[in-house]
From TrEMBL:
EC assignment: 2.7.7.65
InterPro entries cross-referenced by the UniProt entry: Diguanylate_Cyclase (IPR050469), GGDEF_dom (IPR000160), Nucleotide_cyclase (IPR029787), Rev_trsase/Diguanyl_cyclase (IPR043128)
Species this chain originates from: Actinophytocola glycyrrhizae
GO molecular function: diguanylate cyclase activity
Name of the protein this chain belongs to: GGDEF domain-containing protein
CDD domains: GGDEF
Keywords attached to this entry: Nucleotidyltransferase, Transferase
Region entry Disordered, spans: 1-31
Length: 252
């Protein structure tokens, strides 16, 4: 549920309210090098921006190419790989209640959380084009327990955001209480022999939809809600055989 606190009139703004102010927990992990390196660059072949303007994350279509190459490299090196798919819960309510500029401020806040919770070499993009409120995070050399740790830091960071933005020229509001549903998929070497980036995205999307069906503001892996489970990461890893069977049945 979103909450908002109205701000002062324009003439009464403090310095903190003269611009969008994003406050989110910082994990201390390194930023996404791929995002910083591609910032405001254009593709040599098509001339399109390589980053998403509101968030600074990798632009969706360029992410497809870079992420596919990362999955291919994981196959060559014999490493596991994980994909986190994030969907902001009821994000349309932000745009409808506070305006699209406030919505963009929330998207920038989410991008900051993702950068704070990931390592150098991880890949992140805003998915779904100009109207998208979904994000993808690809984690090379990551198994299930590591991916779940990153996913939980991202979920908690989004919940802890406080975003101050203008609603009109005279009025500001502080948006809090944004939540996210998250799906996680991981592949080991045996999976990568037969599966590719599209399969990984399909599996993460199945898990994301399960998270939304089961109440939102949670993380799911193959329909297993890991936000409230008492299983340890090692126990969850042992259930990957069940996840493999689920993948084969996903089209049913």
């Amino acid at each position: 549920m979103h909450t908002a606190r109205a701000g002062a009139g324009e003439g009464e703004h403090t310095d903190r309210h003269e611009h969008v102010d994003i406050v989110a927990p910082r994990s201390g992990d390194r930023p996404l090098q791929s995002v910083a390196a591609a910032h405001h660059r254009r593709c040599d072949s098509c001339g399109q921006l390589m980053t998403d303007p509101p968030t600074g994350l990798i632009e969706r279509w360029h992410w497809d190419e870079v992420a596919a190459e990362t999955v291919a490299q994981a196959r060559i090196r014999g490493e596991s790989i994980a994909l986190i798919m994030i969907d902001l819960d009821r994000f349309k309510d932000v745009n409808d209640s506070y305006g699209h500029l406030a919505g963009d401020a929330v998207l920038r806040g989410v991008a900051d959380v993702i950068r704070d919770c990931t390592r150098e070499g991880d890949l992140a993009c805003r998915y779904g084009g100009s109207a998208g409120d979904e994000f993808l995070v690809l984690l090379p050399a990551s198994e299930l327990d590591a991916a779940l740790g990153v996913a939980e830091r991202i979920r908690a960071g989004i919940t802890g955001m406080s975003v101050t933005a203008k609603v009109t020229r005279e009025l500001t509001t502080t948006i809090e209480g944004q939540t996210a549903s998250i799906g996680v998929a991981t592949y080991g070497l045996g999976d990568l022999v037969e599966l590719d980036l599209e399969d990984l995205m399909l599996d993460a999307d199945v898990s994301l939809r399960a998270a939304k069906r089961h109440g939102r503001d949670r993380i799911c892996v193959a329909n297993m809600d890991v936000s409230t489970t008492t299983e340890s990461a090692s126990q969850a890893t042992k259930r990957m055989a069940t996840w493999a069977r689920f993948r084969r049945l996903r089209s049913v």
